[in-house]
Structure formats: structure tokens, C-alpha cells
Amino acid sequence: MPKGYLSLVLHAHLPFVRHPEYDEFLEEDWFYEAITETYIPLINMMDGLLKDGVDFRLTMSMTPPLCSMLLDPLLQQRYIRNLDKSIELSIKEIERTRHDHLFHELAWFYHNRLQDCRHVFCDKYGRNLVGAFRKFQDAGKLEIITCGATHGFLPLMADYPEAVRAQIMIARDHYRECFGRDPRGIWLPECAYVPGVEKFLQEAEIRWFIVDTHGVMFSEPRPQFGVYAPIFTKSGPAAFGRDMESSKQVWSAEEGYPGDSNYRDFYRDVGFDLDFDYIKPYIQPNGLRKFTGLKYYKITGKTPNKEPYRPWVARDKTAEHAANFMFNREKQVEHLAGTLGIPPIILAPYDAELYGHWWFEGPDFLNYLLRKVAYDQDVFKTITPGEYLQKFPTQQLATPSASSWGNKGYWEVWLEPSNAWIYPHLHMAAQRMTELARQFHDCYGLTERAMKQAARELLLAQSSDWAFIMKTGTMVPYAVKRTKDHILRFNRLYDQIKANQIDEDFLGNCEWRDNIFPNINWRYYI
Description:
Blueprint: E1 4-12, H1 29-51, E2 58-62, H2 64-70, H3 73-96, H4 101-124, H5 129-138, E3 142-147, H6 161-179, E4 185-187, H7 197-203, E5 208-211, H8 213-217, E6 231-232, E7 238-241, H9 244-251, H10 270-273, H11 276-279, H12 311-340, E8 345-351, H13 362-375, E9 380-382, H14 385-391, E10 396-397, H15 422-439, H16 445-461, H17 464-472, H18 476-499, H19 504-513
Parallel strand pairs: 1-2, 1-8, 1-9, 2-3, 3-4, 4-5, 5-7, 6-10
Antiparallel strand pairs: 6-7
Helix pairs in contact: 1-4, 1-5, 1-13, 3-4, 6-7, 12-13, 15-16, 15-18, 16-18, 16-19, 17-18
């Protein structure tokens, strides 16, 4: 019997970015990079663990926008095109670096890695990475959880409960379509909770959710076991709190493992380093440079004189860091079990893209960690939150505190001077959507098509990603445009539905652009 449990939770999410009206679109690169650097490496890792008979547990949210993009034939084909260009560049790099042993070896490293990505994506899984992750869930090793339908920031919708309900219920329905079962857990968008959300989770039969540390620690009444046991809300679903110690050890670039000098430097990329005429076919059509994914330098330190990256050295370092992480969790579990008198659960949630994209060696770290936990110690086991509730179904009743995992723990990342302007528009649209749903609840034909699209446009406008981008200052014009475009399209559809004068050409164009949730149930807004 283990003394305690470790629950690793990865949040796999990207905003819905799909632009059929353009042959190439820069922001779609977010998706292609994530497949190559995060999702396929995680799939390869879990395939290896299954093949070797390693008993492991991992939890991973896969948001509806991400699943929709992974299943979209247009984006699948564009990913292959993007991958083929990267493979072509790697071949050119093998030739260019033939007289430089270290860089030549790195060029071959990337070439082989990209070829493997193509094999996994096209041949092994037939372009269906959702099916790949579903395989691990069906094998009992991975628990896939859902999120808000478009990652909408739920506390800032609290005055419009129909909008909160729709975000959760539409996500539940989409999960069913993707994974053939109901979700048992949910990653609340931005881990943002406000009392009352749980009643909609209960309606969707979702049994548990995650909040940030202070969401549990400031609950009412105070939790007897802190964040090391879940608490049940009055509506039923349980809240798990984030353990800061284990989380920070990984995600912090300053204090955590990813900042090690031997790991790959994310920002040094041949797309910016090489001669313009040489790299021109692999950057933006307008000539602006961009990341290509071929990065030849390690972090080295705070110096412009970076040293060449050595993958084998970095891989050894991930094994060392995995052993250190495991050792720290052993001591933490032993201390907590002795102090609290229960088998504690240490919940460590991360953005999935930390593993592979931002921290290139992250999937290797997870691979070593899960193998070491299975074979090199017997103090704790990995577990999913759902399994923990099955083992320990009796827990304290409490109401979590309003909270998020954003800076300072509440709403200010998503509600401050750069983005506050969006909320009057989002709130008016949510109110109008409820009005339409109640007035036209028994519609059919062209009107029902317009109702479905109006709901899609509202949901896409509500994505918390746009407010976050406005706050952080990267790609702000795109985030502003996306918000305005969806609101404008929603308002035009609203006016046409109310007037019973639906422009079918306009509606068809909207459906072609924003094709998420083909089977959307807009009546959740009633």
C-alpha cells in the first residue's frame, strides 16, 4: 500500500485557429508546432510505456477547440504540408552543415525526428491523434478530461448563467463525440472558479475539477488536509487544489528544471539566424522571419554567446532531474502521510505545451519520471484524480474560494485596461443568445442553421485566449480582430434571425470559416 499519490495533469489547449480563406496563416503555426513538439512526443512516450508494460497514470485535458482542430481535414493536410517543408529544410541543413560535425549531427537529429513525426501522424495513426490519445484512455493509463467549450473565462460570465451552462454542456457533448464516453473531470478554463459553477458541472455529471492552491486553502470551512485531499462542493463535484511545490519545480524557468544550461534554447532558431535568401522559402510569404523549429543552441546561460546543443547530454540531464523530482515527492509524501494521517494526493498541473514546446526535453523528463516511479521506489504511486475519488470517496464538504491560476490569483490578467473593452460586447451577445434561444426554441431549417452559427460565433468570441493575448502584448492585433469578427458576425446573425431575413450566402460563409461544433445544441441557452 503506497503512503500517498502523485497526480500529474497536463492541460492541452489551443485557441481555435483555422483560416480557410488564406492559403497560409501565421497563427496556424501554433497548432503545427504543438503537434510536432508536444502531442506526438507525448504519444510516443506513452506508446513506449505501454510497450514496456510500465504501470503509469497520467491525466490530460484535451479542450474542444484542440480536438476540433486535430480532427479537421483541412488542418490535417496543412500540417503535413508544413511538416514536409520542415523536412525539406532539414535536408538542406544536412548539406549546409556537412563540414561542421556538431551542427551536422544536429541537422540529422532534426531530420530523423521530423521523419518520425510524419510516420506517426500519417502512417501509424492515420492523421487521427485524438484517436491516439483515446487509445491510452481505453487502456486505463490516461484519464482525458474536458474544459469549457472554447476556454471561456467562466467567472466573468457569472451574471449570465446560461452562457456558463452552454460552455460546460457543449464541451460535454463534444467530448462524447471524440472519446465515446462522458468526461469525469474538467479543467476549468484558466483554473478559474467562482461559487455556483459546480451546479452546472453536476448537471453535466462531471465529478471533479481543479482549482489553484488558494481556491482550496481559502475555502469555507477551511480544509482539514489543505490541498492534499479533495473537498466536495455542496452540489457534488469535488475540487482538487494545486500543489505549488511540485508545480514550481518544473514550470519555473528561473528556479525549475527547464532553465538548466544544457537544455535547448527556445529562442535561437535558424529562421532568424540564417541568411535571408537561404531561409526565405521557410519563413512567412511576406518575408518576415519566424520560428522553423530547428534550433542549434543550448541555453548556456545569460550570455549572447550560446554553445551548441547536445541532445544526448540534455537527455541524461532529464534522467537526473526526474530522479530528483521523484526523491522530493518521496520525502514530501512521507512527511504529509506522517503529519496528516491520510494517503495524500499531490496534484501537479501544467500546461501541456511546457512539455516539448517550451521545454524541449519535457517529454523525456516525463518518460524517465514515470518509469522511475514504477520501478525505483515504493513510497507513492501515480494516480488520476478520478481514481483517487474512487479509492477515497469520503471527503470534507466545503465551498472553494473564487480563484484562478493567473497572476495574483484572481481575474486581473483577463480583466484590465488592455482587454476590459471586450466584456460589454460579450455580455450583450450572451444576453441576446439567450433571448434568441427562448424566442426561437422550436425553429428548424435555415433559422436553426443560423441559431447554431450564432452560438458558435458567441462561443469563439468568449475564448479567454484573446483577452490573455491582449494582456501579454503578443499578437495583439490578431486577438482584437478575432474578438471583433466573431461579435460582428454574431450581431449580424442576431439581426437576421429577429427579422426573419437570413442571408444564406453570409450564413454559409460563416459556417465555412467557423466550423467548430457541427452538432452544437444551442438550446442549452434556454
